[in-house]
Amino acid sequence: MKNKRKSPIITRNKKSLHSHATVPVNSYFKILFTPKMQDNLLISVFEKHLPKGTVSYCYKLWYENHFYFRLTRRRESKLGDYRYDPRTKEHTITLNHDLNPYSFLVTYLHEVAHLKAQIRYGNRIKPHGEQWKAIFSELLIPIFERHDFPASLSKALKDYIADPKASTCSDTNLMMALREFDKDDNLVYLSELTEGQRFRLGRKFFIKGKLNRTRYICKECKSGKSYYVSEVALVEI
């Protein structure tokens, strides 16, 4: 048991597997959008990946905060990230290219909040402390004023604004609400399976075990090793 580690979906020895479906890489994959690039190129990317009615707001955040932006391949342990280079004073945000529009929006604003917190406070605060939570909430509120979210997602987002977690994957209710908009209908939540039931996650098969807070302890069939798997992981049965 002492070798187990936690990550958004499933981990062991700091490695993780996601249950997201793979989608074709779009034509803007891996392009680094710099603060000096042509505006219409990034707008085209946002129109492809964001919910309607949110493009201008997200573009304005990029334009006003002068950061680098890039889409990446699906990463196993995160939906997006923010990095600051103290040598060049450059800010970079990356997002996985296969997120559904609402996941893309929430993750984008999550990372922009990190950028604004860095600019405002530097390294004097915790990454997901009270200052970051306040900034993230400030970024989400205008979205509610300009965009009508589906009812289930709207409630989850309002609860998330009240107490943002370190990542969207850390909030079970928000994660489940966002995943309603994923395109793969052949997957089910791990929480829907019974204890002892066999399932597939990525390329591996597991046996569902007991719940430990928000993760199930599951045994990988081939190796017999135990993993913590998120209760909202999407799996095949």
Can you characterise this structure?
The chain has 237 residues and is an alpha+beta fold. The protein folds into 2 domains: 1-19 and 187-237, SH3 type barrels (Roll), CATH 2.30.30; 21-179, no CATH class. Helix content is 34%, strand content 20%. The protein has 6 helices and 12 strands. The chain has helices spanning 39-49, 55-65, 101-121, 130-146, 151-162, 172-179; strands spanning 10-12, 15-16, 68-72, 80-85, 90-96, 188-189, 198-201, 204-207, 211-212, 215-220, 226-230, 234-235. Strands 1, 2, 7, 8, 9, 10 and 11 form a 7-stranded antiparallel β-sheet that branches. A hairpin with a 5-residue loop joins strand 10 (215-220) and strand 11. Helix 2 packs parallel to helix 3, helix 3 (101-121) packs across helix 4 and helix 5 packs antiparallel against helix 6.
Keywords:
three-stranded mixed beta sheet, disordered N terminus, alpha+beta, 2 domains, 237 residues
The chain-level structural class is alpha+beta
- As a percent range, the share of strand residues is 15-25%
Distance between the termini: 26 Å
Count of helical segments? 6
Multimeric state of these chains?
A: single chain
Question: Roughly how many Å is the radius of gyration?
Answer: 18 Å
Overall tally of domains: 2
Based on Cα principal axes, name the global outline: globular
The profile of the biggest β sheet is: 7 strands, antiparallel
Helix content: 25-40%
